[in-house]
Amino acid sequence: MDSDKNTPSPEETKPDEEAPKDAATSSADSTESGSQEAPADALSKTPDELEEEAAEEAAAKIDTDSAQETADKKLSPLRRLFKRVNIYLLIFILLLVVAGAIAIVNYLNSQKAPTQPNLATQTLSQDSLKQLANTDASVGNTSQTLTIQGNAIINGQTLTRGALNVAGNFQTGGSVTAPNLTISGTANLGSTQVNSLQVAQNTAIQGTTTVRDLNVSGASSFSGAMTASQITVARLILSGNATLEIPNHLSFTGSSPSRSINSSVLGSGGTASINGSDTTGTLTINTGNNPTAGCFAQITFQQVYTNQPHVIVTPIGGPAGLLQFYVNRSSTSFSICSNNAATANQTFAFDYFITN
User: Fold this and answer.
1) Phi, psi of 338 (to 5 degrees)
2) Percent of the chain beyond pLDDT 90?
3) At 134, phi and psi to the nearest 5?
């Protein structure tokens, strides 16, 4: 009897068994209501509880999708189109349409015949022409432009007080007189006569050039052959392994040097004369009575040499060859002398050649 009293009845055990389920339900309700209580750990839940939570999440997603579809249905068709179509694609299509419209309009305008201008003409009578010939006529003012569509021929003189601008080619059958002429581009001149020509930059001459007087103040370089009838230079320098070729005669011109004779050596009545220049020449000697040994004459240069020159003397004639001659030299003069006395009353000569 005591055991029957301690055994619980089915009614008493049923609430106890269902208590966990009610707790889970109350926990789910509290979660849906947005309570701040932390959810239970998934490992501590039963499979039935996990399936119930998955079913609730799927139902909530279905409710959200249905609400989104309802909102989309409420939108206008144009907004739904913009939402589905890319805006950049629409802009690109719009640009294509505008470009096509512009091309079509240009094509249609090009097919139209150009409108012919309707110009009003006015005929000048003979009396009007005579009046224009005897008086000056002004057409318009400075703010207006006179346009002549056809050709114009002016028989008389034309004066342009302002600037003259020519858009096309400028051709003239006569001469052009201008105080100043500036050409910014290329100029082709057939035959040109220039009184004074100054070239600031380089000058290239393709053909033959004939220059009457050429004065060059700076350095000049000739890579090819140069032919000239006469070249006058203050100093001629052959650089490098240069060769000086003179197929014709070589002459040295210039003022004749001065000479002074020694009468005691030439003898009584003896004379001496010189013919030549500072570089080359001939000294002619005429002895008198009783000549003696010594220097016949002294030749003084017109231009003083920078250094002591080299003097080459050659005797001319038999009497000159019999002499034991020698030379005294300096940068200002030289003398022809003999160690023995020359033959009396004889004529002989000496040639000289001088280099520095």
Assistant:
1) -145, 140
2) 29
3) -95, -15
Phi, psi of 13 (to 5 degrees): -80, -25
Q: What CA–CA distance (Å, rounded) separates 287 from 274?
A: 15
The DSSP output letter for 268 is B
Among residues of the chain, what percentage have pLDDT more than 70?
Answer: 74
Phi, then psi, of 10 in degrees rounded to 5: -60, -35
| 60, 62, 66, 69: CA torsion to nearest 10 | 120
Q: Where are the alpha helices (H) located in the chain, listed in sequence order? A: 2-6, 10-32, 47-74, 77-84, 87-111, 126-134, 263-266, 318-321
Whether residue 335 contacts residue 261, with contact meaning beta carbons closer than 8 Å, is answered with: no
Q: Is 267 left (phi over 0), alpha (psi -120 to 50) or beta?
A: left
At 308, the pLDDT band (50, 70, 90 cuts) reads very high
Answer for the pair 297, 338: CB distance below 8 angstroms, yes or no: no
Contact 261, 296 (CB under 8 A): yes
Q: Angle at Cα 312 formed by Cα 310 and Cα 315, nearest 5°?
A: 160
Question: CA nearest 302: which of 340, 339, 246, 259?
Answer: 259
pTM exceeding the 0.70 threshold for the entire prediction: no
Quote the tokens at residue 124. Answer: 């000048």
Q: At 92, is the secondary structure helix, strand, or coil?
A: helix
DSSP state of 289: B
Query: Which residues 6+ apart lie within 8 Å of 175 measured at CB?
Result: none
Helix count and strand count (H, E) for the chain: 8, 8
Give the β-pairing of 280-286 and 271-276. Answer: antiparallel
Least confident of 1-5, 131-135, 160-164, 255-259: 1-5
Q: Six-digit token pair at 36?
A: 């701040």
> For residue range 153-205, what is the model confidence (pLDDT) as tens digits?
887 778 787 778 887 787 887 778 877 878 877 887 777 777 777 787 778 78
Residue 70 CB neighbour total at 10 angstroms: 9
Strand, coil or helix: what is 26? helix
Q: Which residues contact 140 (CB under 8 A, 6 or more apart)?
A: 146
CB count within 10 Å of CB 261 equals 16
Residue of 240, 256, 334, 352 lying closest to 296 (CA atoms): 334
